[in-house]
């Protein structure tokens, strides 16, 4: 089943970062256009609850979150000409934004703790 509708074609690349897990960059062409709210229905990001799973919460904090950089750590590898080359820190947005030839942003609400046993 195609989550966003019928796929016309796709491609991906797997990257291994120095400090973390592998991740993929995906490019998917759909037969029909989708609305950004459809993306929000399928993709989300949540922090694990440190009281329920302190080991996982610590792994996420150390391996999956960018920073600190900027005034907190000017020698961070991401810093170029006094600014973060990854454009952090960023404002949280409530909904995914899409546009022609633009960097896509996945909407996030204020980070919340999750009880993995409730899922």
TrEMBL record:
Region (Disordered): which ranges? 99-119
Pfam families in the cross-refs: Helitron_like_N (PF14214)
Q: Which residues form the Helitron helicase-like domain?
A: 2-28
Specify the protein name. Answer: Helitron helicase-like domain-containing protein
Q: Which organism is it from?
A: Araneus ventricosus
């Amino acid at each position: 089943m195609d989550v966003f509708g019928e796929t016309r074609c796709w491609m991906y690349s797997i990257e291994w970062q120095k400090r973390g897990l592998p991740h993929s960059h995906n490019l998917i062409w759909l037969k029909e256009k989708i609305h950004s709210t459809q993306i929000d229905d399928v993709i989300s990001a949540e922090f694990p609850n440190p009281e329920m799973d302190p080991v996982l919460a610590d792994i996420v904090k150390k391996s999956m979150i960018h920073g600190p950089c900027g005034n907190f750590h000017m020698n961070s590898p991401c810093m170029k000409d006094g600014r973060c080359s990854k454009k952090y820190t960023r404002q949280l947005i409530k909904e995914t934004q899409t546009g022609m030839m633009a960097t896509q942003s996945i909407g996030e609400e204020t980070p919340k703790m999750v009880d993995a046993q409730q899922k």
